[in-house]
Amino acid sequence: MEGFINLNKPAGPTSHDMVDRVRRLLGQRRVGHGGTLDPLAQGVLPIGVGRATRLLSFLQETEKVYRAQIRLGIRTTTYDAGGAVTAEQPVPPLEPSYLEQLLSSFEGTIEQIPPPFSAIRRGGQRLYRRARAGEEVIAPPRQVYIRQLRLLSWESPYLRLEVTCGSGTYVRSLAHDLGERLGCGAHLSGLVRLRVGPLRLEEALTPEALAEAVAQGRTEVYLLPMDLPLRHWPALELDEQQARDLLDGKALSLPGTGGAGQPRARAYGPDGRLLALLRFEPERRCWRPFRVFPPVGHQERSPEWK
User: Fold this and answer.
1) Same fold, 3-61+198-222 and 233-305
2) Strand pairing partners for 66?
3) Pick from 195, 96, 103: which is nearest to 149 by CA?
4) CA distance 101 to 160
5) Largest Cα–Cα distance in the chain?
6) Collapsing DSSP states into helix, strand and coil, what is residue 17?
7) In a designed cystine with 153, which of 160, 191, 230, 241 is the match (CB 3.0 to 4.6 A)?
8) For the domain bounded by 64-196, which CATH number is listed?
């Protein structure tokens, strides 16, 4: 069993809780998720099963869309509703036109400081563990990309937004930073992830629906293909000899492919199954595998395949 499940995570459990639940339901040990959702958040949580777990990092690279509710006037330790309140201030009267102008200043490539309670590692330890131990934690700023911030509604003290962003963006930090710019403080009071790359909330499966599908023996219907995160990469179809060469660890010379615009590609065997991910080497004008998915029963002979 291998592929992806578009899971609709409910508010409450952690992303790891969802992985454990899917692992038990499917009877599969090799299960992982692509992009953590905080316990209070809900929505699309990509789940990789079997060898698809080796492709989760490429799904994390894709664009994400969130619907966020921000409560102005209250700061918390975690930047969301799960933290302790640190300050309360009155919310000033705000016009939608002013809010839209403010939101536009956060669009594009910006520097963002992750929340102190986050899963980022520093000094070999997760920041949230150090913060829970009472240590004052300040994460280093990093660049993130926000393509669009759309104002959905403003009814004081609640601000509702649609956030379209790249990998690594913390919507909790965005809420906090908006509150600081407005001078009254703020925290994230609700979050729904609407999309991760090609996975959309309206097509996501609840844990209960997945359990029902497993009980009815219909799991395969909801198992999405291995190449799901790679559809925007060039596709190379190999003949039997090229497939054998690839499985023997040989680089492939495929005239008319590669170049500056095609640094990576997905390769398919004669049976149409995903066989490998390739990286183009311009100096040698050839493709070299960096992820290989041999047919079941094939004896792996190269450390690059592991």
Assistant:
1) no
2) 163, 193
3) 103
4) 15
5) 71
6) helix
7) 160
8) 3.30.2350.10
Q: Residue 9 is encoded by which pair of tokens? A: 């995570």
DSSP designation for 131? H
In the residue annotation, 38 being an active-site residue is answered as yes
DSSP state of 33: E
Record the pTM. 0.87
Which of 74, 276, 92 lies closest to 188, judged by CA? 74
Residues 211-233 have a mean pLDDT of 91
Residue 243 has pLDDT above 70, yes or no: yes
Look at residue 301 in the predicted model and tell me its pLDDT.
46
Which of 259, 256, 261, 249 lies closest to 288, judged by CA?
249
Nearest to 75 by CA among 66, 67, 84: 84
- Homologous superfamily of 233-305: PUA domain (2.30.130.10)
CA distances from 13 to 37, 84, 126, 207 (A): 9, 19, 19, 11
Which tokens in the block code for residue 263?
């640094």
CATH top class, domain 3-61+198-222: alpha beta
Q: Which of 104-108, 124-128, 227-231, 248-252 has the highest mean pLDDT?
A: 104-108
From the candidates 38, 245, 248, 271, give the one annotated as an active-site residue.
38
